[in-house]
Amino acid sequence: MKRILIDYKKLDHKVAAILIDSYPYGYGDEDIITLKKPNGEIIEAVEVKTNDAIYLVKISKSLSRFISNFEENIEKELEKSKADQPIVSNEGEQTINPELESDIDTETDHLY
Q1: Where are the domains of the chain?
Q2: What are the start and end residues of every segment in region (Disordered) (predicted)?
Q3: pLDDT computed for residue 24 by the predictor
């Protein structure tokens, strides 16, 4: 299984969702993995497992904010994607509201 060291900003939506599910209330000291790069730099990360890889997501202050604001950010993104979608017009097609149709039927019943 691959181990991938990655910044949270580069995660795709699927892995980001798994990250949020894994740490819904944030991460603690026991969740942190400490790595030492060949140049001596120390990196701290949290682990996110998928079927094909283990992601080591680098820890930063912005990661903490990302986890705490995830739902709000997703809602904004979904609203943005809905606004970007073209509105399709069915010119010439007539649609009938079922509630209006039922009102018409009951109005004509008493006439006969």
Answers
A1: 2-76
A2: 78-112
A3: 84
